[in-house]
Write the structure tokens for this entry.
Amino acid sequence: MKWITREKPKIDRIACPWLIKRFIDPDAEIIYVQFERVIAEAEKIGAIPFDLPGVEYSHYDDRCTFDYFLKKHNIKDVALDRMAAIIRGADTDRPDFAPQAAGLSAIFLGLSRNIPDDHNLLEIGMTIYDGIYTWAKHLHDKKHTQSPVEHLLLDVYNRYLKSSVQNAPQWTRELKEMIQDQMDTNMSISLSQASESLEINPAYVSREFSKYFDNLSFGEYIRKMRIEKAVNLMQNTTYSLTEIAYLTGFSDQSHFNRIFKKQMEENPSIFRKNLLKGKKNTK
């Protein structure tokens, strides 16, 4: 059986082939191609696509594609469940799923930089996941730290600190930079484009977005940023409202007027007049 997915694998797209070959189809052929070619190539060669939007074998709820393989093929194995939590945490930048997730992410981010050939990376990844499976099955309760003091510190961390320290995932910082770059240039960015650049499932980004972006959806946040830029242009330039609408990425001035009034509770023309009047009064 042939299985096909996006090129440049890191975590889930290495873990899933490992699971396929070890528990589903030992003779499986794994194929990596460019994102935009996956579906067409799958139809052409009769391969099953996985780990990309719109196909059966992909992320669901807060789970990753590895989880879906376990569910779809009804694979019951406690060790694989332990692995799934680690892989899920690493693949979605959620180390709260498993403490080992951050380490797994670091390993494959480094390897993907060092090994440009996808199948060479897969071969090494197979060995890594073999080791993780052995740990998850036989050694997961063994601790590297032996000192009572170390155990005490770990206990304090797990009881009192871990739950209170929840930093925003790395992908949110990257996405903020990406959005800001777009605000400074052509103002065009979609959720699917952002997700593809981040290499994160768009359904997951959409679901998690509001947690880290002012309780707003992706679209609401982009519109907020556009209006903020429009206000700045009104304050500091002599551009017409039509020009400002264009510079802030709106399709036309009517659309700009509607969104501006919704957010600022005033038409942009009235807002600008009041703004200019305020400036004169301060002179």
Notes: Residues 2-141 form one domain. The mean pLDDT is 85. The longest strand covers residues 2-6. Residues 60 and 68 are 7 Å apart (CA to CA).
